[in-house]
């Protein structure tokens, strides 16, 4: 846009949005074509009646109708189009759950864009709007304003997701879940999990910085993710910012141009007052005053400032970076520097690499103004993914705190703080890519990659929870900000096989971290990559296989877990590490019990218990007692289980082992349930549920919910059972624990049969029967009893032919189909009021 946004321009853009020619608009408005042209040129003002007619034809939203008519009747056409007001909430009691924070910087200009995009996103059938334009045009800032302003238009508000640091499509669902206060865990595909989270939401989902995901290697999966959201979340509207359109049939393209700016040929002679009427100049002033609060337009510099904005064609990022130099250069010097590379800023050739379009001149200018040592330091900082702290900057890039401060002052590095935490730093992603080229050209890329791997390996060694550590919450918190850098180090060392030995050590160190944070699937994948590279490192091999076995067990990959446990046990014996051996024996015993290999489980538990008694390790003794109680339950030895679980519970209370209490409570509840003591069992499960909720243990919440569902189902209280099973199903799907999913669906099948849906119940029973064989997992006696009751009851309700047809149908269900059928059954029962 080369001049100010006026009423005439507003008509033009609204007309274009409706795909109307001037002739067509004139015909609908019952006026001459010349009249429309005079309105758009500003030569004439419409009457109130005509303004109202134009508002109707151009479908001006009600929220902006009065402003449209008011602007139409003003004497001068130099007034800018008014800003879009914040939308009014539909009902204070139904306030949206999600509302992105208002960006810290004031949005300069963009009034027309806000009005038009508000109409696109809230009126009519458009589900996908893509803001497209060259880098640095302010697409993200505009989208951020829309996300904040439009939150009240949607029942569940708006979500803002930054994709700048994303290099894998599977990371996007996790970011969406995190923004919703959830976390994807386990083996279920991330896309499947996020579909479930969004399925019944009415919200605006903003995906920022999408263009790098349209690379040939990622494009198909990126587009598939968008299509999946559109297909399975019908009440979600998508706003995407990208340098390149997605090329989807349902996509509505909205081009974001530069801010209004003076024409270049008029810039030199423009007055301060006239220059201040352009949005690009206002933005330059705002950013210049952040580094020099005395900066102001005057007769000497107004032409030069206007020239800077014109040379940058109103590009907001370019203007902001240029304005940061006013402490060192005059506006004329800034304009002269930019003039030497203006052709780069106007590149439109699709063959040009995306990160080289438009903004390169600004980055080159910044680069040329740095000292040689600053260039080297800045390029090295590009190795970090996401954010980093001063310690990492010093160790990996050789940048001291004064060096960081200098780069922050030059707007090349950003500093962020949260509460009392230490400052963290990051680079604009486009600048980071530009600098990676510089680092590679300098021949330093591999060396800095190796330093990053070395640093984060040592960091993980210091901060990651160890194999034998109990409560690891503090350690987990210290690792959280470094997730992107840890993944990058693993990708370089293992994924690209640049240093697989060190990468394998890092993966081994992070094993317990992945378990505690319930990132079971990701951890398992890294450990599988690491395993082939540790043949000559028995300690690392033992750690990898121990962690791999535990994660595989958590994901119900039981046969894989058995092999890994056997390898780990052999290595710990070889290394003569009795503590690690005993710990691994306990976990292997738990797996054997799950698979119904009770003699093997007993042997493992006995050996481990002997070691712990000799070492007088009270915590581990209690842990073995709890696992032994579980084995007794599996063999219907309920009095023995009560004794063992009670002893473990007492010990955990005395030792204040909160992380183990919920397990003992659940086991004691199962034992009481086996003895027919339903009321005490329910109390124990409810206490376990409350404790897990307080500690934020998703796995603990799911297990307690599963146990409550089982108890109520055995008592014939199907409404209460259904409520708890529904909660457990959502959790186990997110965790990806197949054994848990099947146990819950067994319960839902019993609920269905008991509540008048026998066909659906039989289908689900057949489904769980088939899939449980694949994972080699045995039911507990109570679970088997519940299944048998549902099985017998279904035969009474259905004729043999109908029953057999349902059984054959359910036996062919995939995991996804079985879960979908279980959800459909719950919705049906809920609609009938059964689960109230």
Write a compact overview of the structure shown.
The chain has 836 residues and is mainly alpha-helical. 63% of the residues lie in helices and 4% in strands.
Tell me what the structure shows.
The protein has 836 residues and is mainly alpha-helical. The chain has six domains: 7-73, lambda repressor-like DNA-binding domains (434 Repressor (Amino-terminal Domain)), CATH 1.10.260.40; 92-255, Rossmann fold (3-Layer(aba) Sandwich); 264-351; 370-442, Winged helix-like DNA-binding domain superfamily/Winged helix DNA-binding domain (Arc Repressor Mutant, subunit A, Orthogonal Bundle); 451-664, Tetratricopeptide repeat domain (Serine Threonine Protein Phosphatase 5, Tetratricopeptide repeat, Alpha Horseshoe), CATH 1.25.40.10; 701-831, Alpha Horseshoe (Serine Threonine Protein Phosphatase 5, Tetratricopeptide repeat), CATH 1.25.40. Helices cover 63% and strands 4% of the residues. It has 43 helices and seven strands. It has a five-stranded parallel beta sheet with strand order 2-3-4-1-5, with helices on both faces. The chain has a two-stranded antiparallel sheet with strand order 6-7. β3 (203-208), α10 and β4 (236-242) form a beta-alpha-beta unit. α37 (698-714) packs antiparallel against α38 and α37 packs parallel to α39 (738-754).
